[in-house]
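Private note to self, pasted from the team thread so I don't lose it. Backbone tokens:
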């Protein structure tokens, strides 16, 4: 059994503990990758002594794979976080944008009354900073209106994004592709999706700090649930890097606006990407640990047969 589970040390300790003490064990645990299972699994594990005549050292091991259930709970939490972040953005925009117009207008009127070029420099700073803050608010709000969807080859779109970031890669950042050639064209707003993936790839480049690998991966997932809706087929596009990972203290809030671990970061890239993907009925998930961070973009291929979950 340990061979099937990847000879997991934690499972070995649990079995020996129950054998030696006779006390039952029940808990959730993570199983590592094996040759059979390419990803980690979260299982509900119960181990107890099996009472049989003439046998005092038999164990009953019950395991239920709850990986998908856990992911659905996480997806719902991300959707709630996105909704809260969107509301925060709207409130922030309302509080900032209205006074900015008055501030800029007053600075322009004042500039006309000044004869000194030295004093006009100060009004120019006010106008420039007002424009910068207005642009920041526009970025927070994101582009408005419904997506202009057209059939898009997602792999061609990803390659276009990689051409855009090519000057930022440097000599020691390598890129890999792991595409599913059978993935069909997807009804997308190309401009919005380019911006979303551009944000994700630029985040990966920044995390690598000049050295490492970025992997782009695409797959088709069957009977996948996003929120409370189950879709027959979902496109999964992943951006993976082998950087240091997202700090544990930020992992529950990375999709909130203005949350960042970088001194020069704005904290707008991930919230904006999540907003743009959500306009296509999709969701961005992620998993992160030192040496491996994956942002997973899930987009329904066909909403016509979607069912309530």
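Design output:
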């Amino acid at each position: 059994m340990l061979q099937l589970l990847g000879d997991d040390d934690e499972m070995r300790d649990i079995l020996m503990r129950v054998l030696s003490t006779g006390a039952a064990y029940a808990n959730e645990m993570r199983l590592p990758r094996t040759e059979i299972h390419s990803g980690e699994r979260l299982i509900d594990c119960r181990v107890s002594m099996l009472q049989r005549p003439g046998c005092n050292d038999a164990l009953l091991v019950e395991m239920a794979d709850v990986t998908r259930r856990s992911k659905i709970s996480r997806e719902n939490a991300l959707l709630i976080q996105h909704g809260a972040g969107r509301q925060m953005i709207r409130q922030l925009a309302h509080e900032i944008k209205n006074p900015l117009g008055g501030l800029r207008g007053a600075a322009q009127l004042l500039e006309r009354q000044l004869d000194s070029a030295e004093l006009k420099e100060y009004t120019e700073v006010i106008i420039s900073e007002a424009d910068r803050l207005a642009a920041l608010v526009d970025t927070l709000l994101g582009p408005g209106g419904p997506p202009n969807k057209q059939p898009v080859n997602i792999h061609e779109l990803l390659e276009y994004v990689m051409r855009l970031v090519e000057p930022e890669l440097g000599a020691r950042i390598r890129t890999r592709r792991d595409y599913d050639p059978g993935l069909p064209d997807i009804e997308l707003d190309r401009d919005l999706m380019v911006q979303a993936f551009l944000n994700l790839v630029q985040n990966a480049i920044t995390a690598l700090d000049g050295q490492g690998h970025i992997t782009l991966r695409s797959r088709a997932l069957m009977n996948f649930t996003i929120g409370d809706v189950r879709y027959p087929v979902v496109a999964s596009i992943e951006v993976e890097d082998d950087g240091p990972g997202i700090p544990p203290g930020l992992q529950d809030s990375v999709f909130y606006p203005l949350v960042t671990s970088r001194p020069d970061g704005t904290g707008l890239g991930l919230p904006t990407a999540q907003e743009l993907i959500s306009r296509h009925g999709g969701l961005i998930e992620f998993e992160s640990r030192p040496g491996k961070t994956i942002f997973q973009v899930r987009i329904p291929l066909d909403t016509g047969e979607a069912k309530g979950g």
